[in-house]
Specification:
- The protein is mainly alpha-helical and 73 residues long.
- It has one domain.
- It is built from 3 helices and no strands.
- Helix 2 packs antiparallel against helix 3.
- The radius of gyration is 19 Å and the shape is elongated.
Length: 73
């Protein structure tokens, strides 16, 4: 009985991993989109501003996924 209560208490105290899943899926989808565009267009991205935008979004998604993983661990 006590073991069951301790197990339930541990599960109830565990934070939700929803943010990690959402950001992780967004990061994976972004990687697939980048791969598709990059394979179809050799000159992608077309300029320094676009390259900075792609890198910034990629870094933000990766940092967000890492942060969410640590916070929900």
């Amino acid at each position: 009985m006590l073991a069951t209560l301790l197990t339930l208490a541990a599960e109830a105290a565990e934070p939700s991993k929803t943010a990690y899943y959402i950001i992780g899926i967004a990061l994976a989808a972004w990687a697939v989109v980048l791969a598709f565009i990059g394979l179809r267009s050799p000159e992608f991205p077309r300029g320094a501003g676009a390259a900075r935008g792609v890198m910034t979004l990629s870094v933000l998604l990766a940092l967000g996924a890492m942060t969410a993983a640590v916070v929900t661990a």
